[in-house]
Amino acid sequence: MSANEDQEMELEALRSIYEGDESFRELSPVSFQYRIGENGDPKAFLIEISWTDTYPQTPPIISMNAFFNNTISSAVKQSIVAKLQEAVEVNLGTAMTYTLFEYAKDHREQFMEHHRPAASPQTSISNIISVETPNAAPSSKKKDKREQLSKAQKRKLADKTDHKGERPRGWNWVDVVKLSKTGSKDDE
C-alpha cells in the first residue's frame, strides 16, 4: 500500500472512532488535535499530530504549541513530546495516530507528574490585563457605542447631507450671519 492509501484508511478510522468525541478535533485531513484530560483540569493538555507526505513510513510531527498548553512549562512539554517520540519509533511503519492519543491518555499522570499549576504567571497576566483594561476600555466603549436614531431623525439627516453623507459647503454659515446681525443690534 502507498502512503496516501494508508493515510486515507487511517483518516477514515479516526473519523469513525472519534465521532462525537469533544476532545478530538480534525484540523485538516493530515492534522489532528486531541485534548488529554477534561476541560478545566489543570493537568489537561492538548497534543497536535500532523502527518508528513510519507507518513506512516516516516514519523508524524508532534506538537504541543497550542494556546491551550500555555500554563505548562516548556520542560514538561518537551518531556511529553520525547516520550511520544519513543512510542513513534516503536510503531513506525504502521498507522499510529490513534495509538499515540491512547498512549498519552494512559500515561497522562506520568506525563504531568512534574507539572505544577503556576499561580504566579496567571496572576501576573491577570494583573497586566487589569492594569491595561481601564485605560483601553473607556476609549473602546466610546467607539463602539453609536447613537440610535429614529427614522424621522435619519430622514432629516439624509436631507441635510449629500450622497456621500457630508454636509454641503457653507451649511453653518447661516448661523454666523444670524449671530452677526444679532450682535450688531446689541451694539446700536
From TrEMBL:
InterPro entries recorded: RWD_dom, RWDD4, UBQ-conjugating_enzyme/RWD
Pfam entry (one): RWD
Location of the region described as Disordered in the Swiss-Prot/TrEMBL record: 132-172
RWD domain span: 9-111
Superkingdom as given in the UniProt entry: Eukaryota
Basic and acidic residues bias (residue ranges): 156-169
PANTHER family the UniProt entry points to: RWD DOMAIN-CONTAINING PROTEIN 4 (PTHR21275)
UniProt protein name: RWD domain-containing protein 4 isoform X4
